[in-house]
Known about the structure:
There is one protein chain. By secondary structure, this protein is α/β, with parallel strands linked by helices. 25% of the residues lie in helices and 15% in strands.
Amino acid sequence: MLLRNRLLSPQITSFLSLSSSPPLKIQPFTLSFRTLISNPTHRNPTPNRHVSASKATANTAIFDKTLLFIPPGVDPAEVTENMVLSGSNIVLGPYAGDAKIKEVEFVKSSARAKDCPKHDRPEFAILGRSNVGKSSLINALVRKKDVALTSKKPGKTKLINHFLVNKSWYFVDLPGYGFAKAPEAARMDWSAFTKGFFLNRDTLVAVLLLVDASVPPQKIDLDCANWLGRNNIPMTFVFTKCDKMKASKGKRPDENLRDFQQFIQENYRVQPPWIMTSSVTGFGRDELLLHMSQLRNYWDQ
């Protein structure tokens, strides 16, 4: 059994199955407690903490427990508003730990999933449509301007790029999908190439699926999310470009976010975790890293 299944329960594996019938009653999005019960030697969780709202933008998460991501070690009945990370539906639980990034180094670019570094450290894959702001988000998270430039060099854009963080876990930078200038055949090759990584990577903790909040919901993003869900691959929606609250054309980002979340509520059995970010203002950076820390620490116990 793949290690990522430690983060899954039957309730989670069905959350991204598109419903062909009327929407089901939404249940809390929780992680299995089976490992916690069966492993008495696991590390002691850290206490819950309050995360203050960022001044960059208002917290749009509505406090509705049925729409929250509830991590291991948290009793849904005891969730309070101050446990929800700003600009998200994510509850901060006892496995959240030190989220600071102290160092990051480029390790390797791989042409095939089987060529990726072999190790037992947790990985977070970063995936999104072209021009979604993936490189900007990576650089904002590590607070360096040129970390993700490695993947922009000629010949690198179609490769799997591994970055080692704090010598203990990895960012995996994947090529953007849906690039308009590529022929259909190239898109299909890319799809098979990337899916091979997801299906054969035991160390994958979760996929950060980046969605551009400055444009209306895109079918290609929804199709990607649906594929990940059907293959039991944990993911978090990361909405980018949330600083652009004034729209030059069409709807504002907050309206696009509402439309995207409405689609999820109407068509998916359980909401996945989601969070708003801005690489320009830094909004959501610390909250996203805290969310990743609790997934990573639970996985790594």
